[in-house]
Design goal:
17% strand, five-stranded parallel sheet, 28 strands
Length: 783
Amino acid sequence: MSPSKVGTRGLARGTQSLMAALVESFEVSLLAQDGVAAPVALLWPDPDAQWAGMVPLLRAALPQFYVLGTCTPADRTGPAIWLRCVVDRTLPEGYPEPGVTPILYLPGVARQTLRSPGDCPSHLLPLVELQYRGKVWHQRNGRDWTVDAFVMSEDGVGLDVAQDVQTREALLRSLPLLAETPLAGLRGKRLDSDDFDRLAVSDPIRDMLRWIGAPEVFRKSLDEGRWKAFCNVCKSDLDFDPDRKTPRDAAKLLVEGPSNRWPDVWQRFAEAPHLYIGVAQALREVPSSLLTPERIPKVNTAKETELRVALEGVDSQAHADACKRVLDLEAAHGTRRGWVWAQLGESPLVLALAPLADLASRARSAVGGASLEEAVDGYIRDAWKCDKAALVALSSVQSPADVALVRKVVHALHLPWSDSSARRFQGLVSADEAAARAAVQSAPVEEDTCIAFADGLRYDLGRMLAEQMEERGFRVSLGHRMAPLPTVTATAKPVACHTHVRFKGSGSPADFTPLMEESAQPATAVRLREQMAGKGVDVLGTSEPRPRASGASFGWAEMGRLDELGHKIGADLVTHLDAALTAMADHVAALLDNGWQRVKVVTDHGWLLLPGGLPKVELPAHLVATKWSRCAAVVGESTTSVPTYGWYWDPNARIASPPGVGSFVAGMEYAHGGVSLQECVVPELMVERAGAHTKATIEVATWRAMRCRVSVKASDPTVRLDLRLNWKQAHTSIVASVKEVGPSGEASLVVDDKHEGTAATFVLLDSEGNVLDRKPTTVGEAS
């Protein structure tokens, strides 16, 4: 499955079709946590075989798609024991390529059947063990995905669909057509049976593309009458007779774009080429056209090869020439990102060229400034985008060959800029260490605020996190501050704590950890939490967000593993950044959902990341007590050939740091502890809900048959209580009316019997409809 990319979002609502949303959901289901073995298979139970109409399309689009049924290996269909052999790759052939996880569609089989081996039919027993080594595709509440649940859910495609029997039946009838229909035209309105039935009305352009891509499958899908109607419409609208001509003839016309409606056919294909993979294959057999070269895949392939050769030589050029070369390549190739082949994944280098060109443009001028303040201002105003462009470029490719090439180019472009900027910044710090020390401040924390500490949240990533929170509707204030020297967690984390003034230098900063002022013990993470708790701070630590402790005005939470991953996997960190930022945004949102009025996101330090490794700098071991990649504790009055700085917690103790972006340890791709803008300038975010803040929490929900009484603690008696299938979508409410809580702090909701046993969520709303709190439940469950 594809790794995450920096700056992209993996939400199904952004996909163009039901088919794309399904594939995306499969990918999410197969994600494995770090340190956990990758799943060997994805099981897809479908007790009522509702999804059966999608099988031909999925079989054509996903070579790793297999179906439980009669043994027909040519169609990737077979009994349970055959599917088990596919997963274990014990067959002579017929299993997916290495690294590709098979998807096993199980029509007529419920997940519950596999979870009860004692009651499981014998012919399904070979699949039981796979649910433990693999993953099961199911809803968050553990239920099997039905078609209407996936179509309506925020985890699916999020359409607004009527919930009557006629609509459900029409949805199932139209499923194959819905799979290929662009979703944009279906959003913004409530869909009913008529909307889905209209999908079955012939669309000649869509049907022509389906016929070109899979002529035999398409022909078999039509009875004689519908086939004749299709041919007649094609003759009338496109001057083309499928009865007398071949798909190759149609593909040639698609490339040449003659009169009539053939340009419309190409436009439809270009809007969503993933829906018509067979069309792309047919175009490979069409001779080149001088009039429309962008429609010929061979032309694009040749230009990708040309771009690859040109990029291979960038790292051998002087920095200015390398930047100019990349910008020239962008001018020559950039338009290909608008070609169909880029959407189909056949132009990976031209997609990577966009952030590479951005990097090349920004890297031509190092960060300057006549003072420390001017240098920092220049970085937070614009120069941080150079670092972001490097991260985006590194995460934009997947194949080993492309990754290796882009890393070489990023190294060539980013290293000189980073090194020059760091040397200038180091000169400013050395000239006025007092100013650098004074800039290390922790802003006061307001009441009802929880500090969320994210280890190693670099400034550019802090910017991206702020964007994510704003996209979710939160109000965000973004600031910055300086990290103390050396920029390592042991020295810098105490500054972020509520009680950071209660520390002092140890006199010997071998591990760069200050001492607790009262106990003279090292300020470890455990002691920091204990000290905060002793001052009345609600310490959540690294655990999942929970309701704030009664009476607590300040909180402390920890989130993210950026620094840990960076030290562990180096430049491969870029493949985890998007997921890491999304997880942080979820964590902050959850803290706000649990009653905190504000969340202040802080960090300890930034970091340098350079594929291929930072330049090695020599430092004799006898001069230092401790030597890390970007910092070392100088012994006594020893004199070094590299710059030294005072330790933040004891200015008399000297810390050696490599010049520029050098490293005392060879081969380091990820490092911090030194003096550079990336390591020293850190973000600080204050996140709040938009609008006035009303405090409200759901305390107790008690079901009696299909009536539920809910107790609420709220600062405003006008808050309202709803019960929804999807807590984010008001139209999924399953109660007759939303109830105001009132002064009593209680509300009673009645639900129709048809929803008994359904997973739903109680939702508390303010006067503007903002969700203040939510609590999952099962309708009618005993309490």
